Inverse folding.
């Protein structure tokens, strides 16, 4: 049945309403499932380390720490300050290692090299290692994501 | 009480109506010609799939898909359970045989151009089965949870990240988070033993039904010449020949599994540097090497992105090959056959190169 001057029939109109309603019901069931499948895990904003474990580091020395579920790398610079990176290759996410003899970071997966400042120098890595911001606060050594200030 | 088997069978047939299927199978014929040999690759894949199911269920009885328990549980299977090392070895080698045969099956159809009308859908479901088989291999590779499998999985699951917007979601879906963790292991186990088996069966049923519906293809030149190709009855002649091939393959599989059982390394450490010589399974080596040769940046995008897009284009093109190769007897058909040869040479050269 079609009312005069209507663009569609009554059946089409009712089917669309019914279809839209069924779609909305389906979406309301699917969205929590999707949310459940993609976990809410977030990278940490900061990690707290014991400064005493790192205070004896010599200039140029590199140590590991745990950055969430990734390894982190921390280096003592010549002036005694700290530099920190996320220890995964910017190419395809393999864990990198510090080679003290060569003074370079190395990723064995695809032969990627970074210099002692974390800058990609050879192989497939497209970017430097991701920098983190270390800060010594009393007994603690905080490592923070750039842009995340100290929690007060 | 004496059971009348005939009555028993008639009762079942009344309910299930299977007689037409048996009748079809006994009437089915397989053409005999110079390329008939390749027909046997299909059923041989099924043999290895069957072995995978049996050995896979056996392994799953004792395997523990957790961060702490995975490697140890495989160690236990290999050292404590009767012939456990052989079960694992057969499962591992049978996957290699199965994927190798899927590839041979695909190439045989590529070169005989059996995907031509009306068998386009058979080819497309076949391509889906190849992809699912490779995902099976990829998810299974992580399950021993040693340093090599961890790094290979990190690389493999990071590759979708090269695709803007959706890539990140795909990676998080595969990993169950931003990183490869114990959740990834649980997830991969679930894919490997639950989701992928359901998927492969659904596609396989369609694939096999399509093969039955269209029958076996005959060589292109015989089809054009409208030549009557001699045929062999499927039952029992062809089946018995298949059985001979199955027994030979089973012998080779067991011999290799006995002599070259896979090793088990130390359990993976999420914080340890990637070990030297990270390699995926052999059927991913050419893709691995392709990713490796692209430079870090190509203009505004990363080399990885370009490589991933090229690989995706190639996969989609092969999926739709029957439509691209719509005049198989013409010049274009010849070029596509040569492209197949080029593809094989590329895959072999790059695979060897990645091992150097």
């Amino acid at each position: 049945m079609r009312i005069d001057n209507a663009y569609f029939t009554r059946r089409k109109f009712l089917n669309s309403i019914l279809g839209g309603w069924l779609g909305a019901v389906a979406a309301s069931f699917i969205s929590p499932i999707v949310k459940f499948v993609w976990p809410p895990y977030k990278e940490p904003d900061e990690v707290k380390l014991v400064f005493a474990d790192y205070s004896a580091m010599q200039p140029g020395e590199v140590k590991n720490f745990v950055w969430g579920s990734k390894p982190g790398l921390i280096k003592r610079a010549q002036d005694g300050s700290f530099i920190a990176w996320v220890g995964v290759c910017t190419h395809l996410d393999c864990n990198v290692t510090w080679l003290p003899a060569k003074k370079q970071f190395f990723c064995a997966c695809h032969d990627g090299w970074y210099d002692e400042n974390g800058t990609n120098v050879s192989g497939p890595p497209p970017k430097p290692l991701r920098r983190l911001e270390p800060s010594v606060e009393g007994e603690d050594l905080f490592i923070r994501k750039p842009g995340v200030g100290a929690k007060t | 009480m004496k059971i009348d088997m005939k009555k028993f069978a008639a009762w079942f047939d009344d309910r299930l109506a299977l007689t037409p299927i048996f009748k079809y199978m006994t009437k089915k014929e397989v053409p005999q010609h110079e390329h008939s040999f390749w027909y046997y690759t299909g059923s041989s894949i099924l043999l290895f799939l069957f072995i995978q199911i049996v050995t896979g269920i056996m392994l799953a009885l004792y395997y523990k898909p957790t961060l702490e328990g995975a490697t140890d549980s495989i160690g236990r299977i290999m050292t404590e359970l009767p012939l456990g090392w052989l079960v694992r070895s057969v499962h591992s080698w049978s996957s290699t045989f199965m994927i190798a045969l899927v590839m041979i099956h695909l190439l045989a159809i590529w070169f005989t151009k059996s995907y031509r009308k009306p068998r386009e859908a058979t080819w497309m479901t076949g391509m889906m089965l190849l992809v699912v088989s490779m995902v099976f291999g990829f998810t299974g590779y992580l399950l021993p949870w040693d340093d090599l499998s961890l790094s290979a999985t990190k690389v493999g699951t990071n590759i979708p990240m090269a695709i803007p917007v959706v890539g990140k979601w795909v990676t998080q879906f595969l990993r169950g988070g931003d990183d490869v963790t114990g959740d990834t292991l649980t997830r991969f186990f679930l894919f490997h033993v639950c989701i992928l088996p359901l998927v492969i069966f659904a596609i396989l049923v369609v694939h096999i039904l399509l093969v039955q519906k269209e029958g076996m293809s005959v060589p292109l030149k015989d089809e054009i010449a409208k030549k009557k190709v001699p045929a062999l009855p499927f039952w029992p002649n062809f089946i018995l020949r298949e059985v001979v091939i199955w027994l030979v393959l089973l012998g080779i599989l067991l011999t290799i599994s006995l002599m070259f059982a896979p090793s088990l390394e130390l359990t993976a450490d999420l914080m340890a540097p990637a070990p030297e010589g990270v390699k995926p399974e052999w059927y991913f080596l050419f893709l691995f090497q392709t990713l490796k040769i692209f430079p870090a940046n190509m203009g505004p995008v990363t080399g990885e992105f370009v490589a991933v897009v090229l690989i995706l284009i190639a996969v989609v093109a092969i999926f739709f090959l029957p439509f691209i190769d719509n005049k198989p007897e013409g010049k274009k058909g010849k070029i596509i056959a040569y492209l197949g040869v080029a593809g094989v040479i590329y895959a072999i050269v790059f695979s060897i190169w990645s091992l150097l």
